[in-house]
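Task 17 of the worksheet. Students: predict the tertiary structure of the chain below and write it out as structure tokens. Keep your answer in the requested format; marks are given for formatting as well as content.
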Amino acid sequence: PKEWRAAAKSPLVFMAYMNRGKEEVSEYAKMSEDLGFAAVGITMDTVKPVKIGDEVPLSTKDGKPRKGHKSTPRDIEWMKQQVNLPVVVKGIMGAEDAQTAVNAGADAVVVSNHGGRILDYNRAALEALPDVVEAVGGRVPVLLDSGVRSGGDIVKALALGARAVLIGRPVAWGVGAFGAEGVERVFGIFAEEMQRVLAMTGVGRARDVTRAILFRDHWEGPRPL
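Model answer:
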């Protein structure tokens, strides 16, 4: 966290995986608070080690077994006792989980399927977003993560009630290609795409976007011949 804080010009959030143990998580959370991080968070949806296709599994690291973690609402309550910062809960994909997280003290929730890396055939985060927004009912901000690949995706998320979106892989691609300039270019592309989509849908500002710009075809199953 010290290196991140020194290098960053924007707000930072420390996201914890509880499988590291509460002692270590608490240490890093308190360090993040001391360094001026904006919030701390808990990733709730990694209950088993990830294994995708033919990739090397994450079940081992340096020859040592790795495990998932079974986070519970008590972990949210525990985290709020460790630091005087907002607690963000990531990995929410349904109304019931959203209500549980907020009732346990979450200050914000992130609708996320972990980039599709946790459960095959899970629904897209964008599909889950309306249910979560409705369940939360404005009590805390709802953010969206997973599958954001264009400015149009950002506009759709905002229209469905997300307060903001989190962008991961495109930023990583920008870093890999051209370093800091690559990241700047990625955000520039997203901003340009957002402006185009907003203009073409008759919306002056991103904050004014609503579901009125969206439509969805409902598939009612196969029709008889």
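Marker's comment: The beta strands are 13-16, 39-43, 60-61, 64-65, 87-92, 108-111, 142-145, 164-166. The chain is about 40% helix and 15% strand.
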